[in-house]
Amino acid sequence: MAEAAAESTGLASIAKDWSSDVTTFKGVPWGKAMMWIFLLSDTFIFGIFLTSYMTVRATTAEAWPNPSEVFSLTLFGTTVPLLLIAIMTFDLITSSGTMALAVNYGYRRDKKKAVIFMLATAFFGAVFVGMQAFEWYKLISEGVRPWGNPWGAAQFGSCFFMITGFHGLHVSAGVVYLSIISYRVWRGKYDNTNFEIVEITGLYWHFVDLVWVFIFAFFYLW
Amino acid sequence: MSSDVGQQHPLALYFWIWGLLFVISAGSYLIDFFQVGYDVGTMELRWALILVFMFLKAGYIVAVFMHLKWERLALIYALLLPPGVLMVLVGLMAWEADYTWLTRVVYFGAEVAPQPAPVEHVIH
Q1: Hey, of A25, A38, A59, which one would you mutate to test binding to chain B, going by the most B CBs within 10 A of its CB?
Q2: Which of A26, B52, B87, B96 is 20 to 30 A from A17, alpha carbon to alpha carbon?
Q3: Which domain holds residue A155?
């Protein structure tokens, strides 16, 4: 690390790290580097989903259904645009915060708090999946299908089910992943480590929230 | 693992960013709540606001919650440059889009519908 510290910033440090003939990502546990690489590949999957969505929306001659109206909810006689999606967004942001706290407490070796906040994160994730199931149920009962819908361009349904379905799958997997890791942390499997496992799990979870930021912006708001 | 591996930052920082993310999310939602763009019929302001809030929120999540801000440049560039290539794909697809659209309308007789049908929600 002493040599790396000699050139620890600037473009020269990149060349030095990559040509050092030892671990490229210095100060990063291998599990964390692998998670980052996995998330990079996942970025391409969601990137390509969103790009294909852009393509079909820009090339269809039919009108695109208005997401503001499609996803509105009527509460006590008032129609609020995009309400459920907003609640889902805030739920996911809440879970990101509890995850960040879990990582922090993990590095402080406060196992109990780390586990509690990881389980809280999993809980908010499960709530998110529940709301998404309701959203799907509502849209399907209103006639939205991957091949058509009552309001406009048929591609709306295929994009919607593909993108939100794949994201929901990631959230569901994250809930399972968080549950397993928190159980293992609780059982003491990582007691002789620095608890970087919590940060690795957190990277995955924050990524799921990150993807939602782009889905929210491009699919629901645009 | 040696103790120099890991990311330790004050708790207050996370709470500040957490609060900030709530504010940014609220900003995003308000774009739709106030029907920005739909009210005047030109969407440029709406799109600009969507992108600003999106990049702000994504940036804070990646930089602080995912700790990328404190990683070495070798990792930061390895993660941020490849998705940049996606922008080439986005550019190509956007560039060709009007051509595909015109082909559909001019040669395949697709009918242009500028407005989608209004949404009538079924009350359950």
Answers
A1: A59
A2: B87
A3: 30-221
Count of domains forming chain A? 1
**Which region among A194-198, B16-20, B38-42 has the lowest average model confidence (pLDDT)?**
B38-42
Encode pLDDT of A93-113 as tens digits. 999 999 999 999 999 999 999
Q: Confirm whether A198 is domain-assigned.
A: yes
CB A63, CB B113: distance < 8 Å: yes
Chain B residues 7-66 with a CB less than 8 Å from chain A: 7-9, 11, 14-15, 17-18, 21-22, 25, 28-29, 31-33, 35, 38, 46-47, 50-51, 53-54, 57-58, 61-62, 64-66
What is the per-residue pLDDT across B59-109, written as a single tens digit (0 to 9) for each? Answer: 999 999 999 999 989 999 999 999 999 999 999 999 999 999 999 988 887
A29 to chain B, any CB pair closer than 8 A? The answer is yes
Give a yes or no: residue A22 inside a domain. no
Do residue B73 and residue A72 have CB atoms under 8 angstroms apart? Answer: no
With 0.95 as the threshold, say if the pTM is over it. Answer: no
Is residue A19 in some structural domain?
A: no
| Two structure tokens written together for A200 | 């690795």
CB B8, CB A198: distance < 8 Å: no
Output the domain CATH number for residue A49: 1.20.120.80
Q: Indicate the domain borders of chain B.
A: 7-70, 72-111
Instruction: Please give, rounded to a whole number of angstroms, the shortest distance from the CA of B42 to a CA of chain A.
Output: 12
Best CA proximity match to B50, nearest among B63, B65, B40, B37: B37
Is the reported ipTM for this assembly greater than 0.85? yes
CB-based contact A17:A7 (threshold 8 Å): no
What is chain A's mean pLDDT, rounded? 92
Asked if the structure places residue A4 within a domain, the reply is no
Q: Where do we find the tokens 């995009």?
A: A82
Which chain B residues are Cβ-neighbours of A51 within 8 angstroms? Answer: 86, 89-90, 93
